Every structure is written in structure tokens, then in C-alpha cells.
Amino acid sequence: MEILTAAELLAAIGHETRLAIFRLLVETGPGGLYASTIGERLGIAPATLSFHLSHLSRVGLIDGQRESRFIRYAANFNTMDGLLAFLTSNCCQGTSCLPSMDGPDQGSERCCLAHKES
Amino acid sequence: MEILTAAELLAAIGHETRLAIFRLLVETGPGGLYASTIGERLGIAPATLSFHLSHLSRVGLIDGQRESRFIRYAANFNTMDGLLAFLTSNCCQGTSCLPSMDGPDQGSERCCLAHKES
DNA sequence: TCCATAATTCGATTATTGTCGAAATATAGG
DNA sequence: CCTATATTTCGACAATAATCGAATTATGGA
């Protein structure tokens, strides 16, 4: 993943309202929710909701599919997983955070970032 | 982690320049880099760099420590790991993404988000 | 004390983003 | 065809964020 793409994805969920929408869809799972349901659950005005759904959809973090008068939105887990992989890749050049080190503990700092195999 | 905190962290790295700074520090590891080194490597003007370092530092994604005339900045792995844990928590209510399912494959969608134990 | 270097703060400008009422579009049903 | 409902688009405004030259602060060495 390119850094510009990653920054766009992060900016998309770097807003309280959009993060709430995205988290709701992640917790809901692949089945997703209708736009109106999202709006009711989170208390967002229709025009504002549409603006944010459009933003999340444009960057590929969610997908929407029309079902008669409703549109069902669901999290795109592939996109999010790619982002997580980017964020955790090449941490510490793979050299600084070996499981065991000689000598006294070098500090309580958490290191490294890791993510399950995809 | 609260959603507002998570959104602030994501917004902080949801900007190309700040993401480049943060990724450079993640790849560098706990040793970190001097501000001037970061500026040289990424080609950022001093005032602009300071603005972004201050932002990342304020939200807790990096830490800076003065060493004589230099300030050494390093990624805060604890903060980032907390953010990753938040993003991957409670995915699909734990019910929709069991390793094996009966019936035909329900689609190629990636599910769920997972992160190593902390 | 004076100078050089590292980094931040200030100030002004420009650009982008978020919100939401009102109007428009899409779909279903009588 | 008309009405009701779901959603988006439009338009205008307010608020926030990003950039960077110039001035300022902090530190070390001659």
C-alpha cells in the first residue's frame, strides 16, 4: 500500500463521526446496516450522514449496495486489513525488538507493532 | 481506548507528511532520530516539521527528548499498539467469522480484523 | 561574552473540511 | 399518476488546518 493511500484511509477514519460509523459496521460484520439505521443509531442528520458515507465509500473502507429503497453499507475488511498491514510493516527494521535480549530490560516501551498474517 | 482519542490519533497520522514522519520513526525503532535528521530525510522545512512533530507529540504517538542542541524523537509503540487494538476489537461480534462455515463460501470478503495479543 | 546551530513560535495567508436546511432523485405501493 | 419514504446533491456558511519566512529561544563551544 502506498503512503498516500494509507494517509487517505487514516484521514477518513480520523474523524469522530466517520470512525463511529466505521466501527459500528465493523462490529456489525459483513451483513452491514441500512444507511437509515446507521443514522438512527448514531444520531446523525441525513445530509451529514450521506456526506460521511460517501467519503468512507470513496476511499474503499465501506461498500454500499442498494436494496429497493434502502442502501446497505458494510465495512470492507480487505481494505482495513491492508491498512493494518501497512501500519505494522517493517517495524524497527526487524532488528531492534527480538523476543529475548541480554542484559537488563532496556525499558518498558512496547515494541514492536505486529499484526496477524494475512 | 475512547473513540474520540482514537479519532485524534488517526487524524494525526491521516496526513501524508505526518504519516511519513511516523512511519520513518516506526521503521527506525526505539532509538529514534533527531528532528533535523527527519527533516533532511523527508525534505520538510523546519517550521513545518516542528508543527507536525508537535502535533504527533501532543497526541502521544511520538516522544521527544532533548540531547544537548538536538531533540531526539521516537515512535511511542504503546500508543500505537493501543490504537491497533481498538481498531480490531469486537469485530463482527465474534460470531460471523468463524474459521469454518457450513455451506458454500459466502464470498471472498476478508473477515475479521485481528491483531496479536498484547 | 559572542557566535553558530537546532528547534520552536509567531504571523499572515491559503486551502480544505464539516454541517445541515432545502431541493432533487430513486424506489415502492396504492 | 400520486404519495410516501430513503437517500443524495446543492448551496452557503463557519470552523479548522497547513504552509513557511522571519523572529525567537535554547544550547554548546571558542
Automatic annotation (TrEMBL), chains A, B:
Keywords: DNA-binding, Transcription, Transcription regulation. CDD domains: HTH_ARSR. It holds the Pfam family HTH_20. Residues 1-95 form the HTH arsR-type domain. It comes from the Bacteria. GO terms for molecular function: DNA binding; DNA-binding transcription factor activity. SMART domains: HTH_ARSR. InterPro entries: ArsR-like_HTH, HTH_ArsR_DNA-bd_dom, Metal_resp_trans_reg, WH-like_DNA-bd_sf, WH_DNA-bd_sf. This is ArsR family transcriptional regulator.
